[in-house]
Amino acid sequence: MCLGSAFHSSRSGVSGVLLKARGKPILKWTTSHERCHCKLLPNVSGDSVVRILIVDDNQLVRSSLRKLLEQHDEWRVCGEASNGREAVTTFQKLRPDVILLDFKMPVMNGLEAAREITHQANVPILLVTMFLSDQLAQEARKAGAQGACPKERVSCVVNAVEAVLRQETYFPTQNAA
Predict the structure, then answer these.
(1) Do residues 54 and 91 both lie within one domain?
(2) Is the N or C terminus of the chain more exposed, i.e. has fewer CB atoms within 10 Å?
(3) pLDDT tens for each residue of 131-152
(4) Domain range spanning residue 36?
(5) Is residue 70 situated within a structural domain?
């Protein structure tokens, strides 16, 4: 579970928010004297990076997403899977901080995998698919996903990861897609 707590020190004039995931601090955002500072804290695995699992049946898509995500210094792809069943077992082994999950895959689709994973742990899941519709976005929410975005909108994927790291959901309207 992820929790955030606000703090303020009248002595130093510093205010901020501390976000925690699985009981451990992950992000500290502070303001003082009209300056903002955001610091990514060591995550639950002890690293100072966000560990991301990519699940898609297309190797080219997985490779492209890896290149995109690893342009951020604080993000690392810790593993890949090619179907929903592999997603569940890879999640159990690696315990990533965020999961990007395709919808239409062999063996087990993304919604089924999301349901299984969210029964085991509270990890942010983003549905990244070519088939995004308002109805699929609703189903993704019901399955436990914190966001959904179309594969063809690269900026959407980055924005979605950033949103779930801030404890927000990311479900753009179909008209914006």
Answers:
(1) yes
(2) N
(3) 888 888 899 999 999 999 988 8
(4) 2-40
(5) yes
Written as one string, the DSSP assignment of the chain is -EEEEEEEETTTTEEEEEEEETTEEEEEEEEETTEEEEEEPP-TTS-SSEEEEEE-S-HHHHHHHHHHHTTSTTEEEEEEESSHHHHHHHHHHH--SEEEE-SS-SSS-HHHHHHHHHHH----EEEEESS--HHHHHHHHHHT-SEEEETT-HHHHHHHHHHHHTT--B---TTT-
pLDDT of residue 136: 87
Together in a domain, 90 and 121: yes
| Separation of CA 107 from chain center | 23
Q: What is the pTM of this model?
A: 0.71
**Each residue of 4-13: pLDDT tens digit?**
565 555 555 5
What is the Cα–Cα distance from 74 to 177, expressed in whole angstroms? Answer: 27
Q: Residue 171 domain-assigned?
A: no
Asked if the model's pLDDT at residue 118 lies above 60, the reply is yes
- Residue 139 amino acid letter: E
CA atoms within 13 A on the CB side of 49: 14
Count of domains for the chain: 2
The token duo for 154 is 């690269």
Which of the four pLDDT bands, split at 50, 70 and 90, describes residue 57? Answer: very high
Same domain, 106 and 82: yes
